[in-house]
What we know:
By secondary structure, this protein is mainly α. It has two helices and no strands. It is elongated. This is Cell division protein FtsL.
Amino acid sequence: MLPLGLLFSLNVFLSIGSSSQGAQIIDVERKIKILEDENRQLTQTLVIKTSLTKVSERVEELNLVRPTQVVYLNKSDTFAKLP
Length: 83
């Protein structure tokens, strides 16, 4: 009779362990889904905000203009030196 009771107890123990692991797997899968959705939204936002149309609109909003003359400085050039 003892071996039958032992087998029954072992079966219950393993079933509880399997149920617990199943719940953990479901929780991890739910978190993965949330992160995938967030990643998709962030990617979409990035594409929208970095599009040429959006950048052009922002340039106009900030009243930025294309430079007419560009001056390059060398490392050795001094431009703000104390007397």
